[in-house]
Amino acid sequence: MLRRKLALVTIALLFSTLACRAATRLIFPDTPTPPPTSTPLPPATLTPTPASNANCSILASRILDDAINFEFDDEEASEKTLLVSYVATGDVLSKPFDSVVPSKYADEQNDRATQTEIWNYFTRLIPPEDRAFVAAYAIVTDGSGNILASVAQNTSDAEDWILEVDILDATNKYVLTVTLLHEFGHLLTLNASQVPPSVAIYNDPESNAIYERERKACSTYFPGEGCSLSNSYLNQFFERFWLDFYDEWQSIDAEEDEARRDALIEKFYTKYEEQFLTNYAPTSPMEDIAETLTFFILTPKPEPDSIANQKILFFYEYPELIELREQILSRLCVEFP
Ligand SMILES: [Zn+2]
Q1: Residues 224 and 162 in one domain
Q2: Which of 127, 201, 270, 290 has its CA 20 to 30 A from that of 46?
Q3: How many angstroms is it from 132 CA to the middle of ligand 1?
Q4: Ligand 1 geometric centre to CA of 11 (Å)
Q5: Comparing C-alpha atoms, which of 307, 175, 191 is closest to residue 241?
Q6: Does 54 fall in a domain?
Q7: DSSP letter, residue 119
Q8: Ligand 1 centroid, distance to 201 Cα (angstroms)
Q9: Ligand 1 ion local residues (Cβ < 5 A)
Q10: What is the full per-residue pLDDT of the chain (337 aa) written as tens digits?
């Protein structure tokens, strides 16, 4: 339970049936973190494209629609296996560090081209200043389907983050795009400038006592790794859109049995459907804001005719996020000429 809460659960699929909530923070078990080698990555050749460009806007919406409707060849989730880890310095990846893995994953482990292309795509999509704290990148798998990607605090520094991608699920570029934007939603809303990490929790993530102490001392929204700043995107979003039913949601979230909890969340979603953009959003305030940010970037500015749309409009209250949206859309539209 505690582990589940601590995990910066950051799943990336838009479908509740595929979504999984568990992620552990342990990514690099005693992996040395040598200085990155200077393996230059191909520079992104970005030609600014106005995001207001009609074709670009249509493309962005189509990417989202196709991703939502994409059907995975879903197999039963297996334990997450770490295949390869990289240290990231800016855009540059270190040499790969291979884990010992079952032979059935040998091809995926050795597929450096796909591994680096996914990373390069992430760096081309997200402006560097908005992901400077992403200090590691890992290739994992839990079998086909299930978790596609996640982010979490890195083990080397509480303020650093790691991006993990399941290489088996990263074959469709639309789905990958939406997933990476969703993960970026977590990075944007959970990084240290928004949620200063609790050193006590970071140093002793298994301690219930410390976790409870930190949670109770937090008067704003508490996502698990620290207390959100009062004016953070996440806390502002939470106070506006979650306070009314947070008690109800918390009693559901306290359910230990995962299948039962998922069923309860589904019922909760049915009850408040017009407030959520996807059926994955009610999983938690963190997932809701990540889903909403994805819609904010990929869909046209909506009318405030539903709470779900008002959530999208929330981001338009921040000039820096409007600018960020334009930048990401410009970058996206270069990718799909
Ligand atoms: Zn997520």
Answers
A1: no
A2: 290
A3: 19
A4: 4
A5: 307
A6: no
A7: H
A8: 21
A9: 10-11, 287, 290
A10: 333 333 333 333 333 222 332 333 323 333 333 333 344 444 444 444 454 577 888 999 999 999 998 888 777 778 899 999 999 999 999 999 999 999 999 999 999 999 999 999 999 999 999 999 999 999 999 998 889 999 999 988 999 999 999 999 999 999 999 999 999 999 999 999 999 999 999 999 999 999 999 999 999 999 999 999 999 999 999 999 999 999 999 999 999 999 999 999 999 999 999 999 999 999 999 999 999 999 999 999 999 999 999 999 999 999 999 999 999 999 999 998 7
CA angle 181, 335, 39 (to 5 degrees): 85
Q: Strand 134-141 and strand 161-166: pairing? A: parallel
| Identity of the amino acid at 87 | V
Structural domain of residue 82, as residue ranges?
2-43+73-190
Identify the bridge partners of residue 134 per DSSP, sorted by sequence position. Answer: 161
Question: Is position 52 within any domain?
Answer: no
Question: How many angstroms separate the alpha carbon of residue 290 from the centre of ligand 1?
Answer: 6
pTM (two decimals): 0.86
Residues 17 and 91 both lie in one domain: yes
What separation in Å is there between the alpha carbon of 39 and the centre of ligand 1?
A: 30
Residues 169 and 260 in one domain: no
Among 137, 160, 190, give the residue marking a domain's end. 190
Element (H, E) at 98: strand 97-98
Q: Give the pair of three-digit tokens for residue 196.
A: 């200063």
